[in-house]
Structures are given as structure tokens and as C-alpha cells.
Amino acid sequence: MRPLAIAVVGGLMVAMVLTLFVVPSIYLIISPVAEKATRWVTGAAGGVEE
Questions:
Q1: What is the tens place of the pLDDT at every residue in 11-47?
Q2: CA-based angle 50:41:22, to the nearest 5?
Q3: 14 Ramachandran zone, left/alpha/beta (phi>0; psi -120 to 50)
Q4: Rounded to whole angstroms, how far apart are CA atoms 46 and 2?
Q5: Per-residue pLDDT at 50
């Protein structure tokens, strides 16, 4: 039973690290790139057009 407990606790720790640190970091890196791509595709120069 001890190896199973180690695997479960290790999996929970890896999932926690991915959820709290890796995913938000990737979002912060990709978000500006996606925004620029959206502006390029739509042709908007700087925000909302009137």
C-alpha cells in the first residue's frame, strides 16, 4: 500500500503545481500574442472603432 500512497500524493502535488503555476504562466505568455493576432486578423489598429 505504501507505493500506491506515494503515487497518489505525488500525482496530487504535480497536478497542484501545474494548475497553480504552469497554466497561468503559459496564459501570461500567450495572451499578448493572441491579442496581436486578433488585431491583425480583424484589421483593428488600436481598439474599438467608432
A1: 999 999 999 999 999 999 999 988 988 888 888 655 5
A2: 110
A3: alpha
A4: 58
A5: 47
The radius of gyration of the chain from alpha carbons, rounded to an integer in Å, stands at 20
Measured between alpha carbons, how far is 5 from 8 in angstroms, rounded to an integer? 5
pTM of the shown model: 0.58
Residue with cell 483593428: 44
Rounded to an integer, what distance in angstroms lies between the CA atom of residue 28 and that of residue 44?
22
Distance (Å, rounded) from C-alpha 34 to C-alpha 28?
10
- Which cell goes with 17? 503545481
Q: Which residue in this structure is represented by grid cell 491583425?
A: 40
